[in-house]
Design goal:
Length: 143
């Protein structure tokens, strides 16, 4: 995996288009409403709350999150409320993760953790089959 590089891209129409094109190929995102998906990705690029994995200048992995409060994130994970942003908040909610290969997942997550060392992390995983969502949280003690 030595040729897997990580970066964040500036927000501009080209970056947004490249990220949208990549994400649109992977379930469950390929079935999501276009407007909502673009809005989420645009926000992540604008806020620099994303990380892209690439090999030979091609996107092979993407993770994006929203900074929020711990209370909002816990309600969101429990399906008891919307995910509202709180820039600079003590928690992050991972909302998009897609990779071309499962071998990219762990390196992508490790790199994203380095950008959010002091934050509690929350996420839900949706599956393309009949399984329900999987919900997880890693809470920081001081958060």
């Amino acid at each position: 995996m030595s040729n897997l590089l990580f970066t964040r891209v500036p927000f501009n129409p080209v970056s947004l288009g490249l990220v949208c094109n990549f994400i649109a190929h992977y379930p469950p995102f390929d079935g999501y409403e276009f407007g909502q998906m673009v809005k989420s990705l645009r926000y992540q690029l604008e806020q620099q709350t994303h990380l892209i994995g690439s090999i030979d200048d091609a996107i092979v992995a993407y993770v994006g999150w929203i900074a929020t409060s711990r209370e909002v994130a816990e309600a969101w994970v429990a399906n008891n409320g919307p995910l509202n942003p709180y820039p600079g908040g003590p928690a992050v909610a991972v909302t998009v993760l897609a990779t071309r290969s499962s071998s990219h997942i762990l390196p992508l997550i490790k790199e994203a953790k380095l950008l959010n060392l002091d934050k509690s992390v929350y996420w839900k995983r949706d599956f393309i089959d009949a399984r329900g969502s999987m919900k997880r949280a890693v809470r920081k003690r001081d958060a």
